[in-house]
Amino acid sequence: MNKKENPNEKLKPLKRYLQLSGIAVQMGITIFLFSLGGRELDKHYETQKEWFTIIAVLLGVFVSLYVVIKQLNRINEKNK
Asked: N or C: which end of the chain has fewer CB within 10 A?
């Protein structure tokens, strides 16, 4: 029996790769924006140590990880 290949089957790995690449870019942008916000707060309040930047970066990492986990769960549910 000759199996006909579905053109969508060839695009699935590419689509998954693009989704994962987008997630990485989104994570980087989120952390970057949080760090900019922290730096601006440090400038505004004239802190000697950059506490707002440190807290903002950590918060950005946690927020981006949460979003990534939610997106990966959604991708896995679609591909089942």
From this structure: N
